[in-house]
Structures are given as structure tokens and as C-alpha cells.
Amino acid sequence: MTQHLPVLQVVIPLVLAPLCVLVRHPRAAWALAALGSLCAFGIALDIVSTVLASGPLSYDVGDWAPPWGIEYRIDAVNAWILVIVSLVSTAVVFFARASVEREVEASRVALFYAAYLLCLSGLLGIAATGDVFNVFVFLEISSLSAYALIALGQDRRALAAAFRYLIMGSVGATFIVIGIGLMYATTGTLNMADLADRLPGVWHVRTIKVAYGFLAVGCFLKLALFPLHLWLPNAYTFAPSAVTAFMAATATKVAVYMLLRFFFTIFGAAFSFDVMNLDMVLMPLAVAAIFSMSFVAILQTNVKRLLAYSSVAQIGYMILGISFASVTGLTAAVLHLFNHALMKGALFMALGCVAYRIGSVHIDAMAGLGKRMPATMAAFVVGGLSLVGVPLTVGFVSKWYLILAALERGWWPLAVIVLITSVMALAYVWRVIEAAYFREFPGDRETREAPAALLVPTWALVVLNVYFGIDATRTVGVAERAAEILMGAAP
Amino acid sequence: MREELVLRLAAKMMAPFILVFGLYVHFHGDYSPGGGFQAGVILAAAFVMLSLVFGLDAVQRALPLWFVRSCAALGVLVYAGVGFAAMALGANFLGYDALASDPEKGQHLGILLVEAGVVITVFGVMTTAFYVFADRGRRKS
Lengths: 491, 141
Prior knowledge:
The complex is a heterodimer.
Chain A: H1 5-23, H2 26-54, E1 57-60, E2 71-74, H3 76-103, H4 109-128, H5 132-151, H6 157-187, H7 192-198, H8 206-223, H9 232-238, H10 241-266, H11 269-275, H12 278-299, H13 303-323, H14 327-358, H15 369-372, H16 374-388, H17 394-409, H18 412-438, H19 452-470, H20 473-487
Antiparallel strand pairs in A: 1-2
Helix pairs in contact in A: 1-2, 1-4, 2-3, 2-4, 3-4, 3-10, 3-14, 3-19, 3-20, 4-5, 4-10, 5-6, 5-10, 6-8, 6-9, 8-10, 9-10, 9-13, 10-13, 10-14, 12-13, 12-18, 13-14, 13-18, 14-16, 14-17, 14-19, 14-20, 16-18, 16-19, 17-18, 17-19
Chain B: H1 5-27, H2 36-54, H3 56-62, H4 65-88, H5 103-135
Helix pairs in contact in B: 1-2, 2-3, 2-5, 4-5
């Protein structure tokens, strides 16, 4: 049975999704979604321990041997992504039970969980597969279900936001499939390891360079790299709270993983940085993303939108880490994938608690909530401090490695930029804290603390924020291993 | 189109042939162009034609929305079920060799069943999509 785990990881949520449609009962559908997430999480933990102990796993779907058949290949990099996605999914699904009942029409709850499971399955599939066309298929599964999930938001503008995401996301996916097609036309293979073997022989072919360009733009769109992030703020703002927490913590992370896979494993760091000068593209965009989006976040009055802009800025940190083209830089990027998932998951879930009780996440509506919803706002404060990068939280660990990577290259201005933008993050987190703790609660409303069903999953992520901020040996260990694999320094 | 006798008769006569052609495209899919996707669309097209001629209500009495929606879900289960069956018989996921004593027959059976799942889902999704669009604005009035 254990040899089937790489595929079961993806297939169990995929099978539970149609069951949700068939049972149609909201609670039963939720139970299936919870089962799917828990299974995926359990399997991911098992896989990551196996991979770290005894090297990559390979699974031939349909018993067709690679490179002809579809291979699921899991090394330290994607095992880590599987853990991130399934961990967040598990936390969110327990949060979703109460939150979704409040925010989604009862007749659509079962369909909501079907779409949720499909999205989970797609994201896990992108991470698990070792076949580039399979990446595209799972990308479409996760994206299409994501559009549906976002469109289920209460606000009518959710439809427009989902449609915009659909247009931009489809352009991104099309660019990716064109890139894959050009690679296939030149090399005749779709298997990642096989492509990595064959591509060095055809580096000079213009088709390959064009394929690289298409893949780059497609990935940038999907991971919302500035200035291709325009779909993200509205999609995150108007989606149901649970969806925002899930998407913010997983979808863009998996897109970053795609970028890492394409440009490091398949094309190789040498081609990416010596021939295509990827760092010359990534670094300015990353710096622009961090600066401009942090600044825009400070100006927002809707806290969900504020955090959405902050997400684009945080993606900038990951891309900055990648642009260093060093093991330390990649360690910082991979580490921040996990850490950012923890902090944004916790923050958006805390906002979901606020939305559950007061029905708004506007900064003025949150005035005085520090006293009325102490546990929720405390979760927000810890998550916010983690976002800023205060010591003893995961945000500090990420920024520490990012600054180390910058100094290692001797690019100290970039280290300064990381520090300055951390202060900007403090500015926008502070605006919420100021409203919640230092303004009077409008006396005409009755507001209680959010129910335990919402608080427990939120605090679970908050505790992880602190735990991995204090004891980062495990996360840094995996991230370093992943970085070495990506740079080609380890098998 | 209550009055159009020719259209009504022609639609009635063509529907069974379209359905059979859909099944042919599915079952012959491993020898000739075709397969689950095309077959599912052809099957759905028969019902789209019938509802254009006889009206949506008449078709939905025979083929209610909950049924086609369940079809959409059921097909995925058939597909994955074949994969799990292969796994239970000792092969990898979707390893059709294990489905029959002879690997070649197993491959044949496996692809046919998987494509049957595709037919069911594509039929379900196409019909659901048609129902949803055709129903727009009717319920409110």
C-alpha cells in the first residue's frame, strides 16, 4: 500500500469531490472534505519523512515506465509543497464548516466542498507529478475550481473578480501550455527528468528560448508577480473567507513551485541565469513588488484587500530569494513559501472570524474589537507580527535567511530594502491594531467572541507560526535540502 | 414549435440514431477517431436537439437536472474506480494489465471503462450546462 501513496495523495481528494456532489448534504460534504484533507496531510507527512530519509520516490501511473508514461516523482522540494498545501487545507477545512455555513447559500455548500476538494487535488497534483503536461492538466483543475470558489463570495463583485481571475488565469495557463508544447516539439518528451537530460543539447535553439519566455510569463501570471498581479486583490477580497485563507496560503505557493521546477530542475540553473539572465528579470520585479505593494497595502481600508496587497509584496520576497541564484537565496525562498502560508493562513482566518461576527472587514468596522473579540484579535496580532518579521515568529526566520543571502552576494542594498519594507509591513499591520485596540467600540452593537469552531483552527496556525519561529531547525533543514536539489548540488 | 410537424417528426426519428452513434463513437474509440469526450458531447447533443424542438420542460421530465448533475459526478467515480480496481488487483493506479488474465484484454477493458466514465461525465456536464443556460430568466417570470 505504501508504494501507492504518491498517487493516493492526489486521487483521494479527486474521488471525494464527486461524492460531495452526490450526497448533496452540507454537513456530509464537509465531512468528506475534512476526510480528504486529513488523508492528504497524513500521506504528505509520511512522504516527506520517507523522502528525507531515503531519497526521491517515483510512481508510474498505469504501470507505464517513464519517460513514456506519466511519472509521479517526489523529492524534498515537492514533498515540502505537499505538506504546505495539505497542512493549510486541513486547517482551513475545519475553519470552513462554520464560516462557509454563514457565507455560502445552503444549497451550494455541497458544491462548494466539491470545488474545494478539486482545487486541493489539483494543487497536490501539480506538486506531485513529474510530467510537464500533467502539470498543465492539474493546473487547470485547480484554477477552474478556484474560479468557482471565488465566485461563491457573498458580494456580487465576487463574480466580476472571479471572471477577471478566469481571464488572467487562462492567459497564464495558455502561456504555460504553449511553452510545454514548444519544449515537446523540440525534444519529443514531456517527462521532467528526461527534459532535463535533453534540454542542454538544444540550448541554442530559438524555440527553447521562446518556450522559456512563455513559461516564465505564464508562471508570473499564476503566482501574481508584480505587475501581473492585477487579478489577485479583488479575487482575495471578495471570495468567501475560508477560500481566501486557502488560496492565499496555497495557490500562489504552488505557482512559485512550478516556476522553481521549470527553471531549476527542467531548464537548470545554468541555462536560467547564464543564458536567459532570469535574475535580471526577477530582481527588479521583486523589488518593485515589495515596495509598491507594501505601499499600496498601507493605503487600503478593507483589511482583506490590505492583506491581499501584502501577499503580492510577500511573493516579491520569494522571487527576490530565487533571483539570488544561490543555495542560501533558494533556501530563503522555499522557507518563505511555508512561513508565508502559515502567517497569511492565520491572518485571513482571523479576518474570517471577524467577518463571521460583524459581517465586515472594513478597518473602521473593526474599531474596538480588541476588547470584544480578544482571542481573534490576538491571533491577528501574532500573525501580523509574523508578517512584519518580529523575532520568535516564522517571518523573522524567512527574512533572516533572505538578508543572509543578500549579504552573501554582497548586495547589501537589497538587505536594506528587506528591512525598510518590514517597517512598511509594520505600518499596515499597525493600522489594524490601532483600530482594534485604541479606538472605542461603537456602543450600539452587540458583538461576542468568535465561536471555538473558528478560533481553534485559527490558533492552530498561529501556534505553528510561533513554534516554527522558535525552532526552525526542521523547516530550515528541509528548505536547505530542497535548495540544494534545485541548484543541482544534491540528488 | 408546436405546429412544425416535419421538424417534430424528424427530431423524434433522429434522436435514437444520434444516441446510437454516440455509443458507437465511444465503443469504437480505440480503433477509430473518437472516444469518451466526443461520445459524451454527441449524446448530450441529442437531448439538446429534443429540447429545442419539444421544449425544455418535456426533456427535463425525462432527464431531470439532478440526474444529469449526478452523471457528471458519477463518471469521475467510474474513472477513478477503474484506477482503484487495478490497484486492488496488485497493479499501479490505472494499470489496466491487471484487469483481465491477459494483459492485452486488460488494456482493452480498462480503456473502455475509463472512457465510459468520460462519456458519463461529459454527457452530464454538457447537459447540465445547457439546462442552466436554457433555464436562465424562466424561473424568475
